[in-house]
Amino acid sequence: MSLEQRKGTQASGPTNGNSVASSPSQAQVSENRLRLNPNFGHKPESYDDLRLDFSPLLFSSLERYLPPTMLPLPRDTKIQFMRDILLRYFPDGERTRVQRHREYRQKIISNYQPLYKEIYTMHARNFFVPSFLKAIDGNTKDSFRSIMAEPSPGVYTFEMFQPRFCELLLDEVENFERWVHETNFRIMRPNTMNKYGAVLDDFGLETMLEKLMNDFISPISKIFFPEVGGSTLDSHHGFVVEYGIDRDVELGFHVDDSEVTLNVCLGKQFSGGELFFRGVRCDKHVNTDSQSEEVLDYFHVPGHAVLHHGRHRHGARATTSGCRVNLLLWCRSSVFRELKKYQKEFSGWCGECKREKKERQRLSIDATKQELLNGKFAS
After folding, report:
1. What is the CATH number of the domain that holds 171?
2. Residues 5-31: pLDDT tens digits?
3. Among candidates 18, 184, 185, 9, which has minimal Cα distance to 99?
4. Range of the domain at 65
């Protein structure tokens, strides 16, 4: 079966910023690429005082991955080096698209009147259930495990949102959609596969969702998804999807444009709509068969979250009655995406790479045993 990768709007991108120093010379930099392993002993500089193309947090995150020869150089030199790398992901046409999307977003925010302003800033005790907050406060693998189930390797489920928050967010989305209909405003859908739903970042919830990623998802991802950029999440794409008889009914087999995906059911009343998972795969193995332990069907519960690697193949079965609305937060790491280009295999996280590596090891051991046996009989 062909597998289409969903493409979402980038949550952040380049804008016109102040100029910086020229690119470092070859004498200064041994290679124009990042380190494979971060220098955790290095304290990154602050970039908050500069008007840059990308988030200051992103530059601070990338700095630990600079070649050793770069670290003592002036800040402007490091900025240009990192900016050159980041711009590989944003050719001229992409930068123009991102700028137009920023203008589109600002037009919405300037005209749309929120229904519940209290959900536009993070109020953790009003948003989350006590068990989730207690686990976050503990900030250990054991504290997170205490609230989680792992029905299939790499798929984590737990109770997260209070019912009242789910209701408020649902009402806010419906209010936004009414405004869109009344004003005949054309909105951008969450991705290429969903015809219904809305991008939450587009009408003012970007700051709250960034806080959600940085303070509540990143601590979990650092522990459970370190091999796929869980320790360096630096941007997001937040949206809701809507399923029902008069909405999207189901969602085909796919992977997400994310390193880590948070999926939380908000409601309402519905039947069907199960998520089905079929294992984590790299690009090379994206269409390979699943192993029995990778097969999972998950039934949505309002307020409960599913956290998984973006490359975990999945889909949604038909919603047979009612209406199901889910919050999706695609969390991304530019550091991981850069480093991934230099890796030859992904045996750390791709299920098929792991299987092939084990098979090579088994064949090698068998061959060694056979050589030893042959030598024994020969003597």
Report:
1. 2.60.120.620
2. 333 433 333 333 333 333 444 434 445
3. 9
4. 56-90
